[in-house]
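ARCHIVE RECORD
Type: protein–small molecule complex
Small molecule: zinc ion
Source of inputs: curated submission
Record status: active
Notes field left blank by submitter.
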Amino acid sequence: MRGGIDLGGTKIQAAVVDGDGRVAGDARHPTPTSGGPADVAAAMVAAMAEAARAAGVEPAQLEGVGVGSPGAVDAEAGSVTSARNLPGWEGTFPLAGTLQDAFGVPVRLDNDVNVATDAEFQLGAGKPYRSLLGVFWGTGVGGGVVLDGRPWVGRGAAGELGHMVVDQDGERCPCGRIGCMEAYAGRGAMEARARRREGETKLFEIMRERDRPRLTSGVWKRALKAGDPVATELVDEAVKAIGTAVGSAVNLLDVEAVIIGGGLGLKLGEPYVERIRDAMLPHVFADDRPPAVHLAELGDLGGAIGASLLVTR
Ligand SMILES: [Zn+2]
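STRUCTURE (tokenized, with ligand):
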């Protein structure tokens, strides 16, 4: 049994996974919104303890624990630097060492998008393929690349699909640059665009009714279902931007498959995977054999399952 923790900006997902990649127990805790890295680490320890209890083991009996983290991850040093979606995490924090002391077993770290891509490649929708592009459509848009059966991380920053340029004179991206795909498709950027048109949309009314602090994937889905014109227009633009960027990435890498996951990707599901595929096709140069496009199979637990795979490496 191995532990895996997916550390996200809104939730901490922990899972205990057996040798065949099956989930024996899992737990989800909200990510602290105040405090600092030590508070986030304490919440991770609590989530893992609960997942272990559900699986009928103690954390100390696990072979090890893997963690998929946002921010700049130094896997060798076991540290995470400037995870800006997490409270007070501008500097460097020794996350692996802190968790190791709490669990009494080895802890390994990697980037959240890399572990989610690896999970889909080894155990999910990417299993039949040797090369793929993982697209994680959430607050931002992350991308993971597997080439010839191995993850391609470049010098550590490969796969930044969200920052491929889809309009060189376009909107400003949360990263500060102009015209990135994420400026249209990241949930954070979509919320900022919706705010400018607050009077024309029910998005924020739905948010308040559902008692959510921000426009979550569920809020977007409800607004779409209600035919909200602003939500429909912004999601249409997001789909178009993702399709354009994925088409360009496919022209560069010629991968066999594209796997769509992330909070918004999973919530909107199969019909939107089809729509992203349709938006991609006009941009694919080798259009007689476009890649397969699938929805991520492991769902919400993909990140935690992928993190558990770090333990065997
Ligand atoms: Zn950007």
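CURATOR ANNOTATION: The first strand starts at residue 2 and ends at 7.
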